[in-house]
Specification:
metal-binding; 15% strand; alpha/beta; EC 4.1.3.4; 43% helix; binds 3-hydroxy-3-methylglutaryl-coenzyme A; 12 helices; binds magnesium ion
Length: 298
């Protein structure tokens, strides 16, 4: 059977906002995180400590972390591509950090300006620095089902990079379909390969919904024993280095599906829908969640 409970990693404040064309105020980011906390999200990726030249929208992540109202029940995490990022994350008491690389050399070069091997070497000091304080490190592997630059990606490469990150010290690796091209067939093939050597409890799925396949792919993940899914309120987001890719699967849509399956998330759908409508209005965007739109007009 399927899991009775799953963990949702809310990436809206980070993945959702990192690619916004227009300026997003620190105050709005703080409001968003606080509202997600109130809706029952227990894991929120609240920012990224990356080069402000590379991703200007995340340049104020330090202030976001300093200004949010924290709940003890919530993990507030940040992306940290290197030691510099980790040190900043610790200055503002991020609860967890995430390192990120890819199964595609071409994407990694564009995104973090180094090879896969070099990126993992840059993470070594992060793992070292995280150890004494027991800070948990999450990992991301992008382009698991296709790459905007090189096209096809070998599932064996996904497994190899995932395994390496786990050996180095990640407690979990989130498999990213960065451009949302995966289908239940190709995602099942990647999972089958990865699960040859990795436990499903160490894997999360991070699915952008560009081609509308994400919910179906989450169901495939559940059938393979995956119990952690990344999602973004109102389906916000995209990666600046994945042109044309749309946001993550909308958290509202995932929670609605899981509620229907009787799988607990701890998140209140009603409250979450309000948060999705709030942020969409503030950003002047159409709400990217079908559930959010349906509830709002019902
Ligand atoms: P680099 O140029 O190779 O590194 O960039 P560098 O060490 O030479 O540093 C270049 C400049 O960045 C320097 O500043 C550094 O001080 C600064 P300058 O001297 O030019 O003024 N710098 C930093 N500033 C703040 N915080 C830091 C930091 N590190 C260096 N931590 C680097 C390499 C990784 C830094 C850069 O390419 C970068 O920051 N890239 C950002 C990539 C990114 O954030 N992408 C989006 C997130 S990933 C994603 O969306 C995918 C995901 O959602 C999963 C999926 O969907 O598949 C996670
Ligand atoms: Mg992403």
């Amino acid at each position: 059977g399927l899991a009775s409970e799953v963990r949702i990693v809310e990436v809206g404040p980070r993945d959702g906002l990192q690619n916004e064309k227009n300026h997003v105020s620190t105050g709005l980011k703080v409001d968003l995180v606080n509202k997600l906390t109130a809706a029952g999200c227990d894991y929120i990726e609240a920012g990224a400590f990356v080069s402000p030249k590379a991703v200007p929208r995340m340049a104020d992540s330090k202030h976001v972390f300093q200004q949010i109202e924290r709940s003890n029940a919530v993990t507030y995490a940040a992306l940290t591509p290197n030691l510099k990022g980790f040190e900043t994350a610790m200055e503002v008491q991020a609860d967890e950090v995430a390192v990120f690389t890819a199964a595609s050399e071409a994407f990694n070069k564009a995104n973090i300006r180094c090879s896969i091997e070099e990126s993992i070497a840059r993470f070594d000091p992060v793992f070292e620095a995280a150890k004494p304080g027991g800070v948990k490190v999450r990992g991301y592997v992008s382009c698991i089902a296709g790459c905007p630059y090189q096209g096809w990606v070998d599932p064996a490469k996904v497994r190899e990079v995932t395994q390496l990150l786990l050996e180095k010290g990640c407690y979990e690796v989130s498999l990213g379909d960065t451009i949302g091209v995966g289908t239940p067939g190709s995602i099942a093939a990647v999972l089958k390969e990865v699960l040859e050597t990795v436990q499903p409890g160490s894997i999360a799925l991070h699915l952008h919904d560009t081609y509308g396949q994400a919910l179906a792919n989450i169901l495939v993940g559940l059938q393979h024993g995956i119990r952690t899914f990344d999602a973004s309120v109102a389906g916000l987001g995209g990666c600046p280095y994945a042109p044309g890719a749309s946001g993550n699967v909308a958290t509202e849509d995932v929670v609605y599906m899981l509620d229907g399956l009787g799988i607990k998330t701890g998140i209140s759908l009603d409250e979450l829908v309000k948060v999705g409508n709030f942020i969409s209005t503030e950003l002047g965007r159409m709400n990217g969640s079908k559930v959010g739109r349906a509830v709002a007009s019902s």
